[in-house]
Write a structure and sequence with these properties.
Elements: E1 2-7, H1 19-29, E2 33-39, H2 43-51, E3 56-65, E4 68-73, H3 85-94, E5 98-101, H4 113-122, E6 128-133, H5 139-151, E7 156-159, E8 171-174, H6 181-189, E9 192-195
Parallel strand pairs: 1-2, 2-3, 5-6, 6-7
Antiparallel strand pairs: 1-8, 3-4, 4-5, 8-9
Helix pairs in contact: 1-2
Length: 206
């Protein structure tokens, strides 16, 4: 299974990928699962499910908190904007979702950073770490995330973080099939990270 753990549609507000273009790129990149993780909305994920983009959809949301961004995966409802980190995590967990830390060390974006990652892990509230983000040019930042995940025994994910069609599939995990959140984590542990740096094209925001 090829799983892109982090990407955006036009519903993010700072992205240009329509659901129709997402379907085209899913076919071109031979993706099996895409985690649609728009900023502060689930509309893109729900639209992708309704229109059948040719891949299984994991409903997610990239959530800005007071301590930085986290992604909730396997969500059934939207998480409000700029909650304290603990409250956002609690709301993800109440839905049976997973807490995934995107681009944690990238200074250009609102990742959790070393302190935020450590605090979240110490609280038993961190399920997976993005160890390859295709929009990060400095690969040492991805390697730092990978070292953290390895040191603390956390599964590592990979995401294109695509905000445009050209970016979709720039990073993904080759992993076994899964059924539900906990099975997803187990499959992620057995996965292989595939990715390349692919800068934004036609990108509207940060």
């Amino acid at each position: 299974m090829r799983v892109d753990c982090h990407l955006h549609t036009v519903h993010s507000g700072d992205a240009v990928t329509t659901v129709e273009r997402l379907a085209e790129r899913v076919r071109a990149e031979r993706l099996d699962v895409v985690c649609v993780t728009d900023h502060h909305t689930l509309r893109g994920a729900h639209e992708a499910i309704e229109r059948d983009v040719g891949a299984r959809i994991v409903v997610g949301e990239e959530i800005r908190t007071g301590a930085g961004e986290v992604i909730g995966l396997f969500l059934t409802g939207r998480i409000p904007y700029v909650l304290p980190l603990a409250d956002a995590v609690r709301r993800v967990r109440e839905q049976g979702g997973l807490v995934y830390a995107p681009h944690p060390y990238d200074p250009a974006r609102a990742g959790l950073g070393a302190d935020g990652l450590a605090a979240l892990h110490a609280a038993g509230a961190l399920d997976a770490v993005e160890v390859f983000n295709a929009k990060i040019a400095d690969q040492e930042l991805n390697r730092r995330a990978a070292r953290f995940a390895e040191a603390y025994g956390l599964p590592g994910g990979a995401g294109s973080d695509a905000h445009d069609p050209e970016g979709v599939g720039a990073a993904y995990v080759e992993m076994p099939d899964f059924d539900g959140p906990q099975d997803f984590l187990a499959a992620l542990r057995a996965g292989r990270i595939v990715g390349e740096y692919r800068p934004h094209v036609g990108y509207l925001g940060r």
